[in-house]
Amino acid sequence: MNVVIIGGGTAGMVCSIVLARKGVAVTLLERGERLGRKLSASGNGQGNVTNLHMGAEHYFSDDREKVARALARFSNLDTVRFLEELGGIFLPDPRGRVYPAGRQASAVTDLLRGEITRLGVDVRLNAQVKDLSYEDGFKLDCGKERFSADKVILAAGGKAAPNFGTDGSAFALAQKFGHTVSPCSPVLVQLRCDPARVRGLKGIRVDAGLRVMRREKEIFSTRGDVLFTESGVSGDAVFQASSYAEKGDLLLVDFLPEVGRDRLSERLKRNTGAEKLLCIVNNGLGRMLARSAKDDGDLLRLLKKFPLEVTGTLGFAYAQATRGGIPLRETDENLQSLKQRGLFFAGEILNVDGECGGYNLQWAFTSAQIAAEGALS
């Protein structure tokens, strides 16, 4: 049996390792110049591979129950074990996010690449699959080269970060077999808001509480970094919120989540002048808020519930993940196509995306393991 894997990202590399260890002849096709480019940039370059607090409730999908069953088959602990068997040490931070001890995502990529080389996987770079068909076996056309396979694993990603080659073009390969594609949108991405609202705050980073409100109802809340940009807001808290926020929603920023309203109100009454927020918030932020507020009551509201209306996102070019893709319900429990036997899916091409914090890489490891096991049967 020979298997061709389309896509040399995390899911594709893991699939190739699992199969090659079982003695399967594997060809790994990557459209770019090297494997694992997106993995090398993950976790802000530090490689947040999974999370201790794992569960299907952290994912969005058309079939969350299938996600739960998949995570039970290959868990966060399995991911850490898999990587540590390759030679690394992986440790959690206080929030449960698991990183390599050296905090280099590129080193995680090197671990996987090294094992692929050791196993003798046939890696073809600059090999973009233009056409995929089936007639007494799979036929793959890469333009200059053509390949045949008994089974194919499609792990070519979604539409996020097209600079890494994930531009959504691989969806068409699945559609040839009758698969549908759920509408795609960028997630784990910076949010846009009224530029006038954040003018003068560019570059200011705060540890803040963040709530997503829709028609006066709270949709999501978190705490973390909020970074003001030229067009809106970024940072860990915003990336988490982007999985829930829609255009027209209201973000409420609490600049002092550890300081109660009574204590803050008392301090505002004692301090006077334009610098009344010294040593309370960032100086530039404090001056802007003091200028904007009508009185101390209004200033207190801005400190605890600074409103930003969501007008959109920075799009796929800046997103870390894709919402949408091949519906999970169009696959069986081994992530094999229900339209074409022998065709499997792994990674972001499926309609599964996770919250910020290592959940999307966990899905890459989980789905790759399951798809590879399915291809072995």
Would you give an account of this structure?
With 377 residues, the chain is of the alpha+beta class. It folds into 2 domains: 2-185 and 322-376, FAD/NAD(P)-binding domain (3-Layer(bba) Sandwich); 191-313, Elongation Factor Tu (Ef-tu), domain 3 (Beta Barrel). It contains 11 helices and 22 strands. It has helices spanning 10-21, 64-73, 76-85, 105-119, 171-175, 195-198, 236-242, 261-270, 283-292, 296-304, 359-376; strands at residues 2-6, 25-29, 50-51, 59-61, 90-92, 97-100, 122-124, 131-134, 138-141, 146-149, 151-154, 182-187, 191-192, 205-214, 217-228, 232-234, 250-254, 306-309, 312-313, 321-325, 343-345, 352-354. Helix 1 runs parallel beside helix 4, helix 1 (10-21) packs parallel to helix 11 (359-376) and helix 8 packs across helix 10. The termini are close together. The relative contact order is 0.19. The mean pLDDT is 96.
Biggest beta sheet summary: 7 strands, antiparallel
In CATH's first tier, which class of the largest domain applies?
Alpha Beta
Please state the overall shape, judged from the principal axes of the Cα atoms: elongated
The total beta strand count reads: 22
Could you give a short description of this structure?
The protein is of the alpha+beta class.
